[in-house]
Design brief:
Distance between the termini: 15 Å
Number of strands: 0
Strand content: under 5%
Structural class: mainly alpha
Shape: globular
Order of helices and strands: HHHHH
Number of helices: 5
Length: about 120
């Protein structure tokens, strides 16, 4: 585990994994209905299945990255998850309120940075 990686690389990798594992647990326990309602409102087909597949992607990818086991596969799963979640939940072009639109654009830029970090793990 973590062979050939510096202390800072290990800490960075664990921080990336923590982002996905923490939000997965938080969203599955406390925000599942909120996310499901938004997906229904956005006409996402099979919203409950899509939501739980997303949670599974977050958990599986996050664990692979955290454990440094098939890290490349974990990063690919998390990149796919991040892109799909961004498309589903951050549709800034549909938001009329300027402040809320700004938040969604900011989330998209943050997700671009997260994808960049995941690419560095590969």
């Amino acid at each position: 585990m973590y062979a050939g990686k510096t202390f800072l690389q290990i800490i960075g990798q664990l921080m990336i994994a923590t982002l996905f594992l923490g939000t997965c647990v938080s969203n599955a326990i406390w925000k599942e209905k909120q996310h499901l309602d938004r997906m229904v409102a956005y006409d996402i087909p099979f919203p409950r299945a899509v939501l739980w597949i997303g949670f599974a992607m977050q958990m599986a990818g996050g664990l692979l990255v955290a454990l440094d086991w098939h890290t490349r596969l974990g990063a690919i799963i998390l990149i796919m998850f991040t892109i799909l979640a961004s498309v589903i939940f951050h549709r800034y072009w549909e938001v009329e309120d300027p402040l809320r639109r700004h938040f969604h654009v900011s989330f998209l830029f943050s997700n671009v940075a997260v994808i960049g970090a995941l690419l560095l793990l590969m």
